[in-house]
Amino acid sequence: MQIPAVLLPHTVTVHPYLGTGAYGDVWGNPVVVREVFVEDRRRLVRNQSGEELVSESTVRTRPGVRIPVGSKVTVWQGTPLERTGRVITASLFAHPSSWSHTEIALT
């Protein structure tokens, strides 16, 4: 079961993290992802290394959307609240009796 589109009213721009090159981090071309829900909520999360980091925003989207850890995500584009954060974690939530979604924690 997937989240209904009416509950995913926002749009974000993602610069996918590709890895590290000779001159530092490398990101791919920007991709616009529609049908997401952005929530500004400060919370403590652990990254892949187990370090505790503060997440300023949470993005929820459909389960098939792939946004790699380390990617840059711009939320609230075109508004005074616009900002770009890095992906700390990306978690899939799938259960037969609930809405499946991917939850992304941003710096």
Q: Layout of SSEs?
A:
Elements: E1 10-15, E2 17-21, E3 24-27, E4 31-46, E5 52-61, E6 72-75, E7 83-93, E8 101-106
Q: In words, what does this structure look like?
A:
0% of the residues lie in helices and 58% in strands. The model has no long low-confidence stretch (mean pLDDT 93). The strands form two sheets. The protein has a six-stranded antiparallel β-barrel. A two-stranded antiparallel ribbon has the order 2-3. It has strands at residues 10-15, 17-21, 24-27, 31-46, 52-61, 72-75, 83-93, 101-106. It contains no helices and eight strands. With 107 residues, it is mainly β.
Brief description of this entry?
By secondary structure, this protein is an all-beta fold. The protein has strands at residues 10-15, 17-21, 24-27, 31-46, 52-61, 72-75, 83-93, 101-106.
Proportion of residues in helical segments: under 10%
Measured between the Cα atoms of the first and last residue, the distance is 29 Å
Order of helices and strands: EEEEEEEE
Structural class: mainly beta
Q: Quickly count the helices.
A: 0
Query: Would you tell me the overall average pLDDT?
Result: 93
Question: How is the largest sheet built, in terms of strand order?
Answer: 1-4-5-8-7-6
Indicate the radius of gyration in whole angstroms: 14 Å
Strand content: over 45%
Instruction: Choose one word for the global shape.
Output: globular
The largest sheet, given as strand count, sense and whether it forms a barrel, is: 6 strands, antiparallel, barrel
Can you count the beta strands? 8
Low-confidence stretches: none
